[in-house]
């Protein structure tokens, strides 16, 4: 089955801890994205990557970091510098960031809660 | 002004009703328009994708784009309780191919 897998589904973080959210895709897509979703605010772009070993900041990158060492994987680290990390995190991929096929396909999300 | 505006609702309709969901956008460079459906605690799934003005139909769903007014719509005919979800419009294009800009999402409830 082709798709995007996010893990874990639920994650709890203590104040001051870094946590890493996993995102893996087997769609052979070049581009991958991380979005954050808060109630009433839609989806906001955190980071995106067009190719391996390259990534760009989105609209709300502060307090987050990413890596793209493999085409299939785009993990997101929520650092202790992120002041309000409790949210629903969504990973997505698309065939090619620069092409005109812009449909993005999403994973099932990770709900992060600070305790 | 937000790049994409979407009425968050909530919207509640009886089963069988025609539902109209709308978004407006500000950047005329946007060329690609999508509608996603998101069930509670799930990731969004792509419903419709269009790249030109006019209508696109898929079963009970019709996506409409009016670039002159910067206005997009999603119509759902014969709505069903299983259509109850949050509907998100998403727009891309200009210098930001692949980077989707989302509306807030409209919460729809179809009651039997």
Q: Point out poorly predicted stretches of chain A.
A: none
Number of helices, where a helix is a run of at least 4 consecutive DSSP H or I residues of chain A? 0
Largest interface: A-B, 31 and 27 residues
**What's the main sheet of chain B like?**
6 strands, mixed
The poorly predicted ranges of chain B are none
Instruction: Give the termini distance of chain A in whole angstroms.
Output: 35 Å
| Structural class by helix and strand composition of chain B | mainly beta
Radius of gyration of chain B over all CA atoms, rounded: 13 Å
N-to-C order of helices and strands of chain A: EEEEEEEEEEE
Topology:
The complex is a heterodimer of chains A (115) and B (112).
Chain A lengths: L3 E4 L2 E4 L5 E7 L5 E7 L5 E7 L6 E2 L6 E3 L9 E3 L8 E8 L10 E2 L3 E5 L1
Parallel strand pairs in A: 2-11
Antiparallel strand pairs in A: 1-3, 3-8, 4-5, 4-9, 5-6, 7-8, 9-10, 9-11
Chain B lengths: L3 E3 L4 E4 L4 E7 L4 E9 L6 E6 L3 E5 L2 E6 L4 E6 L8 E9 L7 E2 L3 E6 L1
Parallel strand pairs in B: 2-11
Antiparallel strand pairs in B: 1-3, 3-8, 4-5, 4-9, 6-7, 7-8, 9-10, 9-11
